[in-house]
Amino acid sequence: NAGVTQTPKFQVLKTGQSMTLQCAQDMNHEYMSWYRQDPGMGLRLIHYSVGAGITDQGEVPNGYNVSRSTTEDFPLRLLSAAPSQTSVYFCASSPIQTSSYEQYFGPGTRLTVT
Amino acid sequence: GNSVTQMEGPVTLSEEAFLTINCTYTATGYPSLFWYVQYPGEGLQLLLKATKADDKGSNKGFEATYRKETTSFHLEKGSVQVSDSAVYFCALRKGSGGSNYKLTFGKGTLLTVNP
Q: DSSP secondary structure string, chain A?
């Protein structure tokens, strides 16, 4: 298993540009989520999904869109990038029907918006 | 709402020193508690967990006990190594079902261990 994969690893955008951060998992996990990590802020939840076709907002959803058309993929879209979206983005997944509750994280995407 | 408060870093120790990173939480009901570790340039990995009061999670020499009476889940290790240098996150997950799969994280504590 590859686990949770994210692409790209690094990205530089200009203000106003759009892009999609890709996330895929091969563990057949129902739950997937996106976090952003900023210095001194820990990880903050952007959006999450409990299955294909089902998404919901997290703590900091503004400026981001998501969709979940398959169990495996959960892309994060920035519609019009802003410098405030400069951050490290992590995708995570976990099974729902389990007592372990462990979330598996991808390696992250470091985004800089100039 | 749920929240996690952990000691602010950075924490700098010498090899073989004793480590404690404090973590307290606020949540209704009976959350599950976690410590995640992030090594430089990598994503987060689960270090240990406890799902009910008085449970002790342990892994790689690290331990933490779920104390409901003090709403705490402090991370300890008796003898740290240089390879333990990382950022440590305390987190909670409230119950199960519905939207309760979300993790709430503390702000993280940077640990540096010197030889």
A: ---EEEE-SEEEE-TT--EEEEEEESS--SEEEEEEEETTTEEEEEEEEEETTEEEE-SS-TTEEE--SSSSB--EEESS--GGG-EEEEEEEE-SS-S----EE---EEEEE-
Q: Which amino acid is at B34?
A: F
Q: With an 8 Å Cβ cutoff, are B32 and A107 in contact? A: no
Q: Over the stretch A82-99, which tens digit does the pLDDT of each residue have?
A: 999 999 999 999 887 666
CB contact under 8 A, B99 and A31: no
Distance CA(B71)–CA(B77), nearest Å, equals: 20
Of residues B46, B99, B107, nearest to A56 (C-beta)? B99
Q: What is the pLDDT of residue A42?
A: 87
Q: Render pLDDT for A24-63 as a digit per residue (tens, 0 to 9).
A: 999 999 999 999 999 888 899 999 999 999 999 998 999 9
Chain A positions in Cβ-Cβ contact with residue B108 (cut-off 8 Å): 42
Taking phi first (over 0 means left), then psi (-120 to 50 degrees means alpha), and beta for anything else, what does residue B48 get?
beta
